[in-house]
Amino acid sequence: MTMAGNLRKVTGLSRVGGLRGVARLARGRPRVDLSHHARSPLGSSVVNCVTYRDGVRAEHGVDLVDTVERVRRSGHGFVWLGLHEPTNDEFAGVAQLFDLHPLAVEDAVEAHQRPKVERYGETLFAVFKTVCYVEHEELTATSEVVDTGEIMVFVGRDFVITVRHGRHGSLGPLREALESDTAQLAKGPSAVLHAVADHVVDDYLHVLDAVQADIDQVETDVFAENGARADPGRIYQLKRELLQLKRAVVPLGRPLLDLADRPVRVVDPEIQAYFRDVSDHLLRATEQIAAFDELLNSILQAHLAQVTVAQNEDMRKITAWAAVIAVPTMVCGVYGMNFDTMPELHWRFGYPLVIVVISIGCRILHRGFRRNGWL
Fold first, then answer.
1. Which DSSP state fits 13?
2. d(CA 375, CA 365)
3. Distance between CA atoms of 176 and 39, rounded to whole angstroms?
4. pLDDT tens figures, 309-332
5. Distance CA 327, CA 269 (A)
6. How far apart are CA 116 and CA 69, in angstroms?
7. Phi/psi of residue 61, each to 5°?
8. What are the backbone angles phi and psi of residue 327, rounded to the nearest 5°?
9. What is the DSSP string of 160-224?
10. CA–CA–CA angle 185, 189, 193 (5° rounding)
């Protein structure tokens, strides 16, 4: 069978016009130098495209179609294609070349997907939510604490495609770390899938450590001397940001367990043990999120209790002062009724006597309230 026939058999390109159709699509856009070691020219969604054989970076062509053709012609190795926020038009040629399922392609382009792992024939499609801690000098009710993005991974027998969305989560350092571990990289595309999952989950733990510092600061402020005056908006903001983390972390639990326990054709059996380790780390992150959520609830309840206590103290002070003021109000009210026949009304020492009585009454009430802690 010819080389082109073999390629059609593996990728299913005969249904979409074959390799020549893909080549025509590729020629419709500016040619991209895939041999660039870091990033392709501005305007292309392709970040990198590298061929690996036995865990070592291999020489490849400067065109995606040529690169895939060489790998499949040799019968071993795989291609790692990295993309960043591709458009439908940019991803169309890639989808045809690798025979990717339309539903998975739609998810990869549109983003905003729930973390999951799905199987489409011989291809595994995984979605990971990436998170990044946003540095801030002071936590406020509107501070952004966690920024999220996404990484989609297509894994086949001889290829792995990573599609990244968001301003963070670059896989450049991850690629360099993998290339330094040739034994792991030699296990194929599933080694890249594990490395991406491990990288994402490790970021969860790092972000949670940073969030814990914010929670500790809020807790300190709430239980300070003037804790009742602390802004409750900061607590609600942390709960909202923690909810974003929860949406990224919790749904990933079941897919990782499936990768660790259920046999999958494109996942090397030796890699499955590594997925168990990633699953354990994810469980730790899930437990931390639940603990932080409970802690924030407790802090919020404590703050509300402090506000209630402070309001009660203010009301007691107001009531005490109202009782003190009631004495002169009552006396002055009685002697302000303008009757002619009232006791001591025309007495020379009547005014000083009233002042003395008012002062003594106010003083007695004030001391009593002070003794009882109302003033």
1. G
2. 11
3. 14
4. 777 777 878 888 888 888 888 878
5. 89
6. 30
7. -75, 170
8. -65, -60
9. EEEEEESSS---HHHHHHHHT-HHHHTT-HHHHHHHHHHHHHHHHHHHHHHHHHHHHHHHHHHTS
10. 95
